[in-house]
């Protein structure tokens, strides 16, 4: 697996950006974390060149301390890197 950085406030808008660009939500899961906060993971996928690209958007908030990152497989690397670059450029 590979990892990319994303600002915590951009996780939801970037999810919407992925949906507009042909990605599909596979699953969403969230709940309490570390007894004092909450977290969620959104799993998305897209077929690229007859292969399954997958990514997971991670977000957590523990007593106001927010963290986030993007986890992805190798198939998704090129497209997600480009989409993330374009997202922050707009």
Kindly summarize this structure in a few lines.
The chain has 90 residues and is of the alpha+beta class. Helix content is 29%, strand content 51%.
Structural description of this entry:
This protein has two helices and five strands; from the N terminus they run βαββββα. The protein is of the alpha+beta class.
What are its keywords?
alpha+beta; 2 helices
Structural topology:
Elements: E1 2-5, H1 11-20, E2 24-33, E3 37-48, E4 51-62, E5 65-72, H2 74-89
Antiparallel strand pairs: 1-5, 2-3, 3-4, 4-5
Total strands: the figure is 5
Helical/strand content category: alpha+beta
Characterize the main sheet. Answer: 5 strands, antiparallel
- CA gyration radius, whole angstroms: 13 Å
Read across the widest sheet, the strand sequence of neighbours is: 1-5-4-3-2
Helix % is 25-40%
- Please tell me the total number of domains: 1
- DSSP helical segment count: 2
Report the order of strands and helices: EHEEEEH
Contiguous uncertain segments of 5+ residues: none
Gap between N and C termini: 27 Å
- Measured by DSSP, the beta-strand proportion falls in over 45%
Overall 3D shape? globular
Mean pLDDT across residues: 94
């Amino acid at each position: 697996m590979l990892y990319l950085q994303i600002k915590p406030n951009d996780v939801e808008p970037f999810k919407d950006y992925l949906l507009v660009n042909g990605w599909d939500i596979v699953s969403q899961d969230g709940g309490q974390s570390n007894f004092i906060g909450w977290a969620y993971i959104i799993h998305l996928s897209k077929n690229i060149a007859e292969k399954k690209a997958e990514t997971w958007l991670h977000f957590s908030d523990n007593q106001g301390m927010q963290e986030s990152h993007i986890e992805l497989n190798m198939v998704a690397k090129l497209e997600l890197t480009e989409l993330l670059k374009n997202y922050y450029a707009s």
